Amino acid sequence: WFGIPTSESHALIAGISGAAIAIQKGFAGINGNEWMKVIYGLVISTILGFGLGFLVTKLIRIICKNIRRQKATRFFKKSQVVGGAAMAFMHGAQDGQKFMSFMLLGVVLSNGMIPGSANFSIPLWLMIYTSIIISLGTLIGGMKIIKTMGTKVTKVESYQGTAADLASSICLFASSMFGLP
φ and ψ at 11, to 5 degrees? Predict the structure, then answer.
């Protein structure tokens, strides 16, 4: 509503942790080792994203120093579409999995199962449902955040936008591979 960028990962984890603390009447329901991944993810992604954004921007400037500015700008405007697609894919790799896990938890609990007590797979309908809901949420509610992130936080040129997309995609990929939110 206010266009404030947020971390769904941290909000969801904090919310479910609060519920676990309330149910357990204390911290017995919290797995501290897994919670530390949340902290690591927040710190590492911030440092890695900043560092990669800086390095990729510098690298692009070095590679393109002898290319006419107008030609380079045309190329980087088009490359931002590819970068945006990479970011959309990595958004699904991060947020899609996270939301599916919380919806799966609801399905498991509503069927009277204890989480972790049985082998089960994620139903296809849940994957499709999650994809649709994330897409609709971004379409309907994400415009103010998109505008804030795209035009208000920083002013960038097209080559810097490409660098930011590339750096962010690498950062999200690494986080996904190591299971960090």
Answer: -65, -45
- Are 86 and 165 contacting, i.e. CB atoms less than 8 angstroms apart? yes
3-class secondary structure for 28-50?
HHCCHHHHHHHHHHHHHHHHHHH
**Token couple for 111:** 């069927």
Q: What percent of the chain has pLDDT over 90?
A: 21
Query: How much is the mean pLDDT over the chain?
Result: 83
Question: 17: which residues sit within 8 A by CB, 6+ positions away?
Answer: 30, 35
pTM of the model: 0.72
DSSP 4: -
* Residue 5 confidence class, pLDDT cut points 50, 70, 90: low
Alpha helices in 64-96 (DSSP H): 69-91
180, burial (CB in 10 Å: exposed 0-12, middle 13-18, buried 19+): buried
CA 149/CA 147 separation, integer angstroms: 6
- Please check whether residue 144 is in contact with residue 3, taking contact to mean a CB–CB distance below 8 angstroms: yes
| 148: its two tokens | 């804030």
Backbone phi, psi, residue 65, to 5°: -65, -25
Residue-wise pLDDT for 21-42, tens only, equals 898 888 888 888 888 888 887 8
